[in-house]
Amino acid sequence: MSSGDRRDGSIDAAGPGGLAADLGARTDDQLVALMAARPDLASPPPAGTAVLAQRALAGPSINLAADDLDLLTVAVAEQTIRLGTDTDRRRIGVPTSVDAVVAALDGRAEKDDIVARLDLLRTRALVWGTDTELMTGAHTPALLPTRALHLTGPLADQTLADISATLSSVSERERELLDTLATGSPLGRTRDAAPDADPQRPVPRLVSLGLLARVDDQTVELPPVLGQLLRGEKPSEPQDLREPALVPVTGARKFTVADVEAAAGGEALELLRHLTDTVDALGTTPALVLRAGGLGVRELRKLSKTTGIDSTRQGFVVELLAGARFIDSGFPDPPLESGEPAWAPTVSADPWLHQPPERRWFAIADAWLTLPRRPWQIGEASTEGAPIPSLAGDLYDVSAVVERRMVLTALAAGAPGKSIDPDALMALIAWRHPRWQRRLSRRLVDATLEEARALGLVAHGALTASGRALLTMAERDVTAVDVDKPVVAAMAKALPDPIDFFLTQADLTVTAPGPLTAELSAELALVADLESGGAASVYRVTDTSVRRALDTGRTGTELLGFFTAHSKTPVPQSLEYLIDDVARRHGQLRVGVASSFIRCEDATTLAAVLSSPVTEALALRALAPTVAVSQAPLRQVLDELRAAGFAPAGEDSAGDLVDLRERGARVPIQRNQRRSARRPPTPNADQLATVVTRMRMQDTAVSAVPAHSTSAVRAGGGEPATALLQLAMRVGREVRIGYVDAHGSASKHVVVPKLVGAGQLVVNDADGADERYALHRITSVELLEGS
After folding, report:
1. Helices marked H in 571-651
2. What pTM, to 2 d.p., does this model score?
3. What confidence tens digit (pLDDT) does each residue in 49-58 have?
4. Would you list the DSSP string of 441-465?
C-alpha cells in the first residue's frame, strides 16, 4: 500500500497524490470555479486547501454536487469508480486513466463528450489527477443516483428487446419480487444477496440474469431501466448514453409561433378573469379556515358555485392567489359575524386588480414558478386517507419548485412553436436529471405541463415566449433593476390588443369580440352582468344591473350615451326602454342617515311604502307626507326597500347620491409567511476570490518552517507573545500567529509585524493595506526560519 492510501483502501486526501495536493497546485481561478460550482465548500471559508479537500470528499457534499449531473456524466463517474475498484468493492490506490474510461464507454457516446465530462468531474473535485492517473475518493459513489453500478452493469450492453425477453423468462415468484421493487423502493434486503447463496433461489437467479444488482451481502437493487419497463414507462436504450433529441408529436397538427402565442394569450386572459372573480367572491363572502388549516371541500364547492369555475380549476386558482399573497387566512375586516378566521383577499389584491393585464399575468406566473406546493394534488388521498384540501400543508414541498423548472427547462430545448412529443420530453428529463428519475414521473410531468398551459406558459405542447423569458429571469439576480422587463414585454405581445367597442343586441345582451380596455371593461361591468367570459365575452343588461349603475351616480342619459358611444351596432329600443324605465323609478325614494331617513318628492310613493309590510320590518315613522325615519342602518333600509320592490337611492347629508357598493372584506398581509422559494444567492466571484486568498495564506502559514530557537514559540498569547511580536517588529522578522476571530474560528497567519500597541497588531496584507488583529485573540506566536 502506498503512502497515500489508508488501511481501508481509500485514498488519503492529504497524502501524496491526494486531492489536497491537487487543489494546492490549481490556480486561483480554478479554485474559484470549483467553489462556484460547489458553493457549500466555501461556507464557512475553509482554512487551507487541505480542509477544502476534506470537505470536497465528504459524502454529503458529493451528494449535493451531483444534483445537476446528466446521465453521461454519471456513467463516466461510474466507469471511473469501476476501473479504480477491485472485485470486492474495496477502494485501492491504483489510479485509472482518461483513455481507459473512453475505451470502456466506446460506442455509447462521443469521445469528446466523455472527455468533457471527465474535465467537469475534475473541475468539481469529484475526480482528480492527470489524464494518466485519475483518482476517486472513498465517498465518490455518493454522486451516483443508485447504490449499484447499473450504467456499466450487465444490462448496459443489452437492448430493450433483450431485457424484455429475459424478463419474460422469469418465474411468477421472481416477477412478483421485481414488481414489488419497481413500485416501491428499488432496494431490497435479503440474506440471499450473499455470493454463496443457493443459486436456485429467486434472488441469486435474478442477480445471475442481471435483473438485480448486488449492493452488498444483504442488499440488492433493481436497475432503473428495468423498473421503467415494469411500470409501463418508455425508457431509452441503455446502450446509448447520448442526449435524446426532442421530436415533435407524430401526426399532430402543425402550429405556427403566432398560433402558440395567441393560444397562450387567450389562456392568460381566461385565468385572469377567474382570478378576479375569485378575489371578488372571497371579498364578498370570505371562506372559513379549516381547523387543520386550508380551505375545506365544502367551502371550495361553495366558492366554485359562486364564481362558476370548475372545482378542480378553482382549487388551482386559490393556490395561485395564496402563492402570490393576494388571498390569505386571518380575521377579515369587516369581521365575520361568527368571529372566526377566514380566507379573504389581502390589501395587496387591490393594487394588483388595477394593474395592466400583462403585469397581473406576470405576478401570477412568477408566483407559480416559485410556489413550493403542488396544486394538482388537491383531492388526492393524504397519508391519513382523507382527501387533501386546497391550501393545506400536505401540498407543501420545496422540491416542487425544482421539478417545475426541470420540466420547463427541458421543454425549452425544443424549437419555438413546435409541439413536443411527451415521451421524448420524458426521455430528455430522465437523461438530464437521472437522480430525479423516480420523482419526475409521467403524471407529475403531465400535471406540471397542464398547470403551465393554464398559465399561458405552454400552448399546443410548446413553451411560449413568455415561458422562456420567465425561465431566463429565474436564473438571474432577482434584485437587479428591471429584471422582469423582458417577461412583461413578451406577455404584453402575446395578449390580444384591447378594443374600445362592443355589440349590443335586441335581447339585451352585449358582446365584446375581444378583450376590452380596462376603463371600458370596468364601466360595462357596472351596467351589465357577465354571462360568459373568454376571448369573446357576453354580458346581459338587467334592471338590477342598470340600478347598480344608477346607484353610483350615473343618470339614465349618461348610460344611454355610454352605449351609443361604444356600440358598433345601433342601440336597440328594448335597451333604451329598460334604462328609461329604471331611471324614471330610481331615486324617487331618498334614504339618508338619521339613523336613516326616507324622503320622497311624491307623497303617493311614500304612502305606498308606509302601507307595505316593510314599514313594520324597518319601524318606519312618518314625519311629513314626504319624509319618514327609521332606526335601522342605511344599508338595511336600502336592502329592505329593494326587496319590497321599490327603487331607493342613497344620499349624503348634502342630498347627493352616494356609491354604496360593497368594497369587500380584506385581511392584512402576514409578512412572516411565504418566503421566496427562489434559489439562494451564491457567492460572487469577488467573494470567492477573497476566500481563495485566505486559503493561500493558511497554506503558507501551515507550510512555514519555524526557527530552531527554543524561545521562538510563545503559546497562549499574553505578555510573552506580545514581547515576541515587538521583537519581530524591530528586526523585521516573519512570525506565524494563531488567531481566533469573533466567531470562534481558529486560523494561522504568516505576518511581518508593522505596529504593536493599543491592544492591536497591525500588519500589511497582500495588497499593501493595513490589516489588524486583536492582541487578546492571538493564541500563539512563532518566529519563522529564514526570514
Report:
1. 573-585, 603-610, 614-618, 634-643
2. 0.79
3. 888 999 999 9
4. -HHHHHHHHHHHHHTTSEETTEE-H
